[in-house]
Write a structure and sequence with these properties.
The protein is α/β, with parallel strands linked by helices. The chain contains 10 helices and 8 strands. The chain has one domain: Alpha/Beta hydrolase fold, catalytic domain (Rossmann fold, 3-Layer(aba) Sandwich).
Length: about 290
């Protein structure tokens, strides 16, 4: 099997693992209905409007709370914001503002990974720019996601450029922390998705853009992940340490890609959310012991 065929097979496998096959609702500017969330249009594109879904904790909106914005997986081809709905609502129960974001993908909007990253940056910038009305502390915004969504989140915190034309770049699109679930770190010649970005890989590959000041990061990865090698995560960890940035790498023995989803493994969903909670507690974003059930 040649490299291109391997990439196609891997991409289809990733879509199945993430529950992210094409045809999900919420396409082309029609907002989803997520229980407990309010929809906000954060961006108008030629392919339609894009929405964020905000889960708020109970309490005074005037209080500035930390927030986390999650991006779904699906090989930049498909997916749904519902993937991280439970993560966002759980963080709202812990006193944060939990947010899940839609972004353009190939199956719905005919776009490339570059547009995915542009949308990720737009989402973080919109949240920071609207922090006062959302009751968010603009200096405590985390970005998270799984697989290709983890790539989008990581890229918002690492790669320069890929800014949407016409946006006010005086408002930073860089998150203050990263929550990465088997993320695509490496778009280089031996990394996942290289055929989609080719000689532009250094523009978009998080592992090639780690720098001093990269946000503190937590990473979850299964040791049997055939798409994201453990060696890649370990290299990312070393590069983060070299620039003085925190990176907590959690490896789960024998687990495949997508293991953290509740519909794949109740046990590992609970374990990863618990560790995410503890990481956020260590940053001062939440208090007390994890309450996930």
């Amino acid at each position: 099997m040649n490299h291109l065929k391997q990439l196609v097979v891997a991409s289809l496998l990733l879509l199945v693992m993430e529950g992210a096959l094409p045809g999900q609702k919420g396409a082309k500017g029609v907002p989803l209905e997520l229980k407990g969330a309010t929809a906000h249009c954060y961006k108008a594109t030629a392919q339609g409007e894009l929405y964020l879904y905000v889960f708020r904790p109970q309490g005074d909106r005037q209080e500035k709370r930390p927030a986390a914005v999650f991006f779904f997986g699906g090989a930049w081809n498909g997916g749904t914001p519902k993937q991280f709905e439970e993560h966002a609502s759980y963080l709202a129960s812990r006193g944060m503002v939990g947010i899940v974001a839609d972004y353009r993908v190939k199956s719905r909007q005919g776009t490339s990974p570059f547009e995915c990253v542009k949308d990720g940056k737009s989402a973080i910038r919109w949240v920071r720019g609207h922090a006062a009305e959302l009751g968010i502390d603009p200096n405590r915004i985390a970005a998270g996601g799984g697989s290709a969504g983890g790539h989008v989140a990581a890229a918002t915190g690492t790669v320069p450029g890929l800014e949407e034309k016409g946006e006010d770049t005086n408002t930073s699109c860089r998150p203050n922390a990263l929550l990465l679930f088997n993320p695509v770190f490496d778009n280089g010649p031996k990394g996942f998705g290289h055929e989609r970005v080719k000689d532009r890989f250094k523009e978009i590959s998080p592992i090639h853009n780690i720098h001093k000041g990269t946000p503190p990061t937590i990473v979850f990865l299964g040791t049997k992940d055939t798409l994201i090698p453990v060696a890649t995560a370990e290299k990312y960890n070393r590069l983060m340490a070299a620039v003085g940035s925190r990176c907590d790498l959690h490896l789960y023995e024998g687990q495949p890609h997508g293991f953290f989803n509740r519909n794949r493994s109740e046990e590992h969903f609970l374990k990863t959310v618990t560790e995410m909670d503890r990481f956020l507690e260590s940053l001062g974003y939440i208090n007390g012991d994890p309450t996930i059930k």
